[in-house]
């Protein structure tokens, strides 16, 4: 049995980090993850989001080990996550399906808000057990080292996704600002045009009122002279 744990602090808020988790795959830094299928998703009575996924990945064991025990190099694992927006925690628990009975890898990943609100703490813990083979200690160490290596790449991938999200948010804010400025400009032009038309209409009404009055006064004067 081997134990593995890791901790990392992201210099990004919890909302941004957990948003990036859902967009982490596929990425060039973790090409071993091949499939990611959602089996179930629901919100419980406490407002927590539950998601169950089936994850397919390569490199779980060396190809020669897979060949020796007669399994495909693409291995699957169940992953269940719970997102609590009130406590600001995201917990993901996974266990392998492929090779179950030969190898058990139980991993828990937690993203929680740091005491500094603009940071997020990531903790990863795993228990690795290999059964029924004479070189199980070697296999357990190999899996442990692979997980550590993938974790480092995974954190880099997260930073890439977060950068992409920040850029999208900035682009959206810029587009909204430009659209708002354009609408304000069009509104000012329309208001100016309407005011001009109102002034012209008002002037026309005044002229229309003056003309009959002058005509009537002129007619009265002619009658008096007669």
From TrEMBL:
PROSITE patterns, A to Z: PRELI_MSF1
GO cellular component labels: mitochondrial intermembrane space
Span of domain PRELI/MSF1: 1-170
Domain of life per record: Eukaryota
A matching Pfam family: PRELI
PANTHER family on file: MSF1/PX19 RELATED
Protein's name according to its UniProt entry: Phosphatidic acid transporter
Organism: Desmophyllum pertusum
Lineage of producing organism: Eukaryota, Metazoa, Cnidaria, Anthozoa, Hexacorallia
Gene (name only): SLMO2
